[in-house]
Design a protein that fits this description.
Length: 438
């Protein structure tokens, strides 16, 4: 029986462990033994890919076109040979195996042409003197987990465009059995969170608890949305995210920490979220002050300080100054906790060193997020739901009380029934842009 090795860093590398590959439609047909890479070999493969990616990203478009076109044409030319092997591995009809290989080759030739068509966009901004420039840039190494039923075609859907554009998808590094770090590659946080959450939820269910950190990230939007996703899977979701500095320490004038939200989502027994805590460490989120500034309204007293360290109700002055921490030094302590969890713990950029989330100043913020998922029934010995019931009853049983998350759940239900209410000023601005760019 033939042993097959892994191709790593330009050479075929064997291993101390092999897995037998047998035709599922003919168990007497043993295709071969295939090497299983160990950790050091995997590290070597990633290091080699990182070095090669820099060269590939700098390769000219014509060369990239030629390489991808060659891959596609060879796959199509060898579809009968490779398709037969694929059919043996999958136990599928030979015609389907050949068709999958040929289709995969077509993906490569399609994206080879896309290499020569990849163009950015340039548009005027609504702000004078500002121009919007959109371009595709290579950002890192791609890791592909191929599905068993279409191992060539489905993987090619991701591999071909990634190679065409020099690579641009987040990477997940499982550093310990219960801890993973996702690199957002200075892009939006959401793709990296989505990449990590599948692993996070699965691992938390298996082990009882798991954690996911993000670095080189960006604004993740509503933090409670992400913890709510974990709660919908029956897990207690805890989240932290840091932001560019806008909160000064009590008694100071210079911002050191962001508004730094944290969130806890408590699951029910039917996929619902019972409690959702989602709050910033400042009296009010900075985005709310920006909203007041857009609408030309004064902010309430106690929200912010001006650059001179004095209280202000002018949102424009507040945006040049600092936000007031909720609960004075205790709120600043909460913001500090989030900074430690979301930035220091993940290796992300501290808020004091991050560029703003909006505007043309600075490069990517490279902030971070940190999520913890816990199976509450495992940790509580089955008592979690009962304890939550008693807590909720003790809160809601009193007149005039507020349970965290109820307003958001009500708003979600109204939106599902009646649609999403949009501020008139936003509609006016969108119509203005539509008229300008029509």
């Amino acid at each position: 029986m033939q042993n097959f090795s892994n191709y790593i860093a330009g050479e075929w590398v064997s291993s101390e462990k092999f897995t037998e590959n047998r035709n599922p439609s003919d168990l007497s047909d043993i295709i071969g033994n295939y090497a299983q890479a160990n950790k050091s070999q995997l590290d070597r493969a990633i290091e080699s890919a990182q070095q090669a990616q820099k060269i590939w990203a700098a390769t000219g478009l014509e060369k990239r076109y030629t390489v991808l076109m060659s891959i596609g044409e060879e796959m199509k030319a060898r579809s009968a040979e490779l398709g037969e092997l694929l059919s043996r591995e999958e136990g599928k009809p030979t015609a389907e195996g050949k068709g999958e290989i040929f289709r995969a080759g077509q993906f490569f030739t399609y994206y080879a042409a896309e290499v020569l068509r990849q163009m950015g966009d340039t548009a005027d901004s609504v702000r004078d003197g500002i121009e919007i420039d959109v371009r595709r840039e290579a950002v890192g190494v791609v890791a592909i987990i191929s599905p068993w039923n279409f191992p060539t075609a489905t993987a090619t859907w991701k591999i071909a465009p990634a190679l065409a554009y020099g690579n641009a998808i987040p990477a997940l590094d499982i550093v310990r059995p219960g801890l993973a770090i996702a690199d957002a590659k200075t892009g939006f946080a959401h793709p990296a969170i989505d990449l990590g959450f599948e692993w996070l939820a699965k691992t938390a269910r298996e082990q009882g608890i798991a954690a996911l950190g993000l670095r080189n990230s960006y604004n993740c939007g509503i933090l409670g949305y992400h913890t709510d996703c974990l709660a919908s899977k029956g897990l207690l979701g805890i989240g932290f995210t840091n932001a560019p500095a806008s909160v000064a320490p009590v008694g100071g004038k210079k911002a050191v920490l962001g508004t730094n939200p944290f969130s806890v989502a408590v699951p029910g027994s039917n996929g619902e979220t019972r409690i959702l805590i989602d709050q910033s460490a400042s009296v009010i989120a900075k985005s709310e002050v920006m909203k007041y500034a857009r609408e030309g309204r004064a902010i309430p007293e106690g929200w912010a300080l001006g650059p001179d360290g004095q209280p202000t109700t002018d949102p424009d002055v507040a945006l040049k100054g600092t936000m007031i921490p909720s609960g004075s030094y205790k709120g600043f302590g909460a913001a500090l906790m989030v900074e430690l969890m979301a930035a220091a713990l993940t290796g992300a950029t501290l808020g004091i060193h991050s560029s703003p989330f909006s505007g043309p100043v600075g490069g990517p913020p490279k902030t971070g997020q940190f999520f913890i998922a816990i199976d509450p029934e495992i940790s509580s010995g089955g008592a979690f739901s009962d304890r939550v019931d008693h807590l909720i009853e003790a809160i809601t049983g009193q007149d005039g009380t507020h349970l965290h998350g109820t307003e958001r759940f009500s708003a979600r239900e109204r939106a599902n029934n009646d649609g999403v209410a949009v501020n008139a000023a936003i509609v006016e601005k969108v119509n203005e842009w539509a008229t300008k760019f029509n």
